[in-house]
Design a protein that fits this description.
alpha+beta; FAD/NAD(P)-binding domain; D-Amino Acid Oxidase, Chain A, domain 2; nine-stranded mixed sheet; about 35% helix; binds flavin-adenine dinucleotide
């Protein structure tokens, strides 16, 4: 087995794999993707809503806005080229009270600024024409949105990496990184990997990997669990496409929504509740190490002081099915507890800084011989191909020791 590479990517989720594809396309000669788990898509990439986001929500000019727009179209092309089931089904964002109208206006403005052309303002009648069971006073129909199963996308990306001469090593958790002349040694349970350059795409572990590589960063990953309910088969007809509320602009989450998947199933969720472990997919999962690190991070307490009310509300909604269903009834009043059953959960790797701010935008940073993805929550699955291309474009200069990202 070759254990010496030009580039090692730590983390084989959709961002790491898309970056590997782009680096190999732009001429990387020897590259390995080190993935901790034994199967692909064990974390965020395999546990998300499966939406190819339009980019309507993001601040114009931000990385999220630009990379989501480019990534969305690249994702549709990739799915078409590789025969992955997907659909450009569109979605609606529904305002249920007059208080939400200014935020809906702002989304309409952002849609124009972000170059969306298939966005239409709807009144209650048009909303019901599209989604007969929805209750709302106004809405936006967004035609650019689509759906896909991202685990399938990741499997295809891994094949492309191998077709282009890269290697994907499963069960290869990076446990230590040591600098050496001309590069690094990465320790994994299987072997020591010698590499000239590192790209850190480790999702919920990215801040730890950055520190392991000797980077100083003031961000810490805070895990927010998103829990879903499944609509029972005989009630799936309540939802034709995708139905979203108007999001609260104070938070980087979209609010519980209804999503139809490519296999016809319908999910409601996800909520956003603080998880007690970075891989804490159930309420009982507690990691003393993760919690100790979070509670010792000054930014956590600043965030908690500011947002504790929302935190308590989300916790209540996590514990009480009735509270969850009540949130869903805002969008579809006729939905009842007996129409849903608890489903799966995912963990968002959200970066928090030392001032207590939840980072809104993607964060890509560089160091000598290194690129680090330090914040890649939603819509990073949509944007993954564009994120990969952005990193690959910077890589040559960064790996020569120059600055390229800022
Ligand atoms: C509930 C939920 C809903 C979402 N909905 C959407 C959506 O509809 N549309 C959208 O675009 N985005 C959505 N997202 C966001 C999207 O899923 C993520 O932004 C995206 O998957 C991030 O990809 P990633 O590769 O950075 O992370 P991951 O998929 O988490 O991959 C990181 C990988 O790094 C590996 N790793 C960690 N530590 C190490 C180590 N030490 N050594 C080696 N490997 C390591 C992990 O095993 C993992 O496989 C959602 C996320 C969640 C949680």
């Amino acid at each position: 087995m070759n254990d010496s590479f030009d580039i090692a990517i730590i983390g084989g989720g959709i961002v790491g794999m898309a970056t590997a594809m782009a680096l190999l396309k732009s001429g990387a000669r020897s590259l390995v993707v080190l993935e901790a788990e034994h199967e692909l898509a064990a974390h965020q990439t395999g546990r998300n809503s499966g939406v190819i986001h339009s980019g309507i929500y993001y601040k114009p000019g931000s990385l999220k806005a630009t990379l989501c727009a480019a990534g969305r179209e690249a994702m549709f092309r990739f799915c078409a080229d590789r025969g992955i089931t997907h659909e450009r089904c569109g979605k609606i964002i529904v305002a249920t009270s007059a208080r939400e109208l200014p935020a809906l206006d702002e989304l309409e403005r952002r849609a124009r600024a972000n170059g969306l052309v298939r966005v239409r303002r709807c009144g209650p009648h048009e909303l019901r024409e599209r989604e007969p069971h929805v209750a709302g006073i106004a809405g936006l129909e967004v035609g650019e949105t689509g759906i896909v199963r991202y685990a399938s996308v990741l499997e295809e990306m891994a094949k492309v990496v191998q077709e282009r001469g890269g290697e994907v090593r499963m069960g290869s958790r990076a446990t230590q990184v040591v600098s050496r002349p001309g590069g690094f040694v990465i320790e994994t349970p299987r072997s020591e990997v010698i590499t000239a350059n590192i790209v850190n795409c480790a999702g919920a572990q990215c801040d730890r990997i950055a520190r392991m590589c000797g980077m100083e960063t003031d961000v810490q990953i805070i895990p927010f669990r998103g829990e879903y309910y499944d609509l029972l088969p005989h009630r799936r007809s309540l939802v034709k496409h995708l139905i979203y509320p108007v999001p609260d602009p104070r938070y980087p989450f979209l609010g519980v929504h209804f999503t139809r998947a490519t296999d016809g199933t319908v999910e409601a969720g996800p909520n956003a509740v603080l998880a007690f472990a970075r891989n804490g997919y159930t309420r009982d999962d507690v990691s003393p190490e993760d919690m100790g690190q979070l509670l010792g991070f000054p930014g956590f307490w600043k965030m908690a002081r500011q947002h504790w009310r929302m935190g308590v509300m989300e916790m209540h909604r996590s514990l009480s099915e009735a509270a969850f269903v009540k949130a869903l009834q805002k969008l579809i009043p006729e939905i009842r507890s007996e129409d849903v059953t608890p489903g799966r959960a995912g963990i968002r790797a959200q970066a928090l800084d030392s001032t207590g701010k939840l980072l809104d935008d993607f964060r890509l940073v560089e160091g000598p011989g290194m690129l680090h993805v330090l914040n890649a929550p939603s819509p990073a699955a949509t944007a993954s191909i564009a994120i990969g291309e952005r990193l690959a474009a910077a890589a040559e200069r960064v790996f020569r020791g120059e600055r390229a990202l800022v």
